[in-house]
Specification:
Blueprint lengths: L22 H9 L4 E6 L2 E4 L15 H4 L8 E8 L2 E7 L5 H7 L4 E3 L1 H4 L5 H18 L11 E4 L4 E4 L7 E2 L4 E11 L5 E8 L6 E2 L2 E4 L6 H13 L3 E12 L4 E10 L11 E7 L1 H5 L2 E2 L8 E2 L5 H13 L1
Parallel strand pairs: 1-4, 9-14, 11-17, 16-17
Antiparallel strand pairs: 1-2, 2-5, 3-4, 6-7, 7-8, 9-10, 9-12, 10-15, 13-14
The structure holds zinc ion.
The site of zinc ion (ZN) has 8 residues, from loops.
Length: about 325
């Protein structure tokens, strides 16, 4: 499949989704001396340190390194094969911070949200996958039906209720959220796009609108509803643009372009501090997320919001 160019996509593992249902098979992969591990500590990923001169990258642990902290691993998940190497994610959140350094003398555990855009696309995608599924285990330790402890099964892609009378199976979940670039075509033919500034965002920081999908709602309906709720704009045609895993903590962002049928903005002050129509020229000159200057800044380079904005700008040139 052609890479979409959207960050956090493109995990190139063979996930062996049928074979991993057999726990004996998974256990055998775990014993493979070629096995590599991606540790997760309290939602953070292990990457080469900020003091290193090169860009950050994944630090994989070998079988030998694993034996040093085996008893401290609370969950393991078979992520897939990298060629013939089985790759597992390990949850080591139980290790106390002060003794973490004694087990890991290279790299640092860092929030992927902070360093994602500095990582190569392949590394970012792999770490997002590992972080996302370990987070799911951490938040699904108990059966949602009877409250009994649940057990890691199918190589970490299923949790089974330990109460034999219940036996509820729970599968990893991802919360769908729509994210949309709304455009308006002026009578002159020029197009403008609608961006909003969230109430929690710093001055000048604008992005595309977004929101979670309700039960009983199509993705297109969610786009129409969210744009009207947040900015008071009616949109007509809605077209799909691409998607992005967003494990912060557990979403998939579904990207759309929406055609505005009205132009007068009326923001929901609970959601947005402001929303504005921007021309491509204004956006080309925008600063980057995190810039300290008070001027216009747009979404981080690793976000699908930025992908939607950049694609739109390129079409206007
Ligand atoms: Zn149960």
């Amino acid at each position: 499949m052609k890479n979409s160019g959207i960050h956090y996509t493109g995990v190139d593992f063979d996930r062996a989704a049928t074979l991993r249902k057999d726990q004996d098979w998974v256990d055998k992969q775990f014993q493979n001396p070629k096995c590599l591990f991606i540790p997760i500590w309290q939602n953070k990923n292990l990457v080469t340190g900020q003091n290193d001169t090169s860009d950050p990258g994944i630090i994989y642990l070998s079988k030998g390194q694993y034996s040093g902290f085996e008893k401290l691993v609370s969950e393991s998940v078979f992520l897939g094969f990298d060629d013939d190497r089985p790759i597992f994610a390990l949850d080591i959140s139980g290790i106390k911070e002060e003794i973490l350094k004694t087990h890991f003398n290279q790299g640092e555990f860092i929030n992927l949200r902070l360093i994602g855009q500095l990582l190569k696309a392949r590394d970012a995608a792999r770490l997002a996958y590992a972080r996302g599924i370990i987070h799911w285990h951490n938040t699904h330790q108990f059966c949602s039906k009877c409250g009994s402890k649940s057990i890691n099964k199918s190589g970490g892609h299923l949790r089974l209720c330990s109460n034999m009378e219940c036996g509820k199976e729970t599968f990893p979940r991802t919360d769908p959220a729509v994210i949309m670039l709304v455009e308006y075509r002026l009578e002159s033919g020029e197009k403008k796009c609608l961006l909003g500034r969230h109430t929690k965002s710093p001055e000048g920081m604008f992005s595309t609108l977004a929101g979670f999908v309700d039960p009983g709602e199509s993705l297109e309906e969610a786009v129409v509803r969210e744009v009207f709720e947040e900015a008071g704009i009616r949109v007509g045609q809605v077209t799909y643009q691409g998607s992005q895993p967003w494990p912060f903590p557990a979403s998939i962002m579904l990207g759309f372009r929406a055609q505005a049928e009205t132009i007068n903005i009326n923001v929901d002050p609970q959601e947005l501090a402001e929303a504005k129509w921007f021309s491509a020229d204004e956006l080309i000159n925008a600063g980057e997320w995190g810039d300290k200057n008070p001027g216009l800044k747009i979404s981080r380079k690793d976000s699908i919001a930025r992908h939607l904005i950049d694609s739109w700008i390129n079409e206007q040139l």
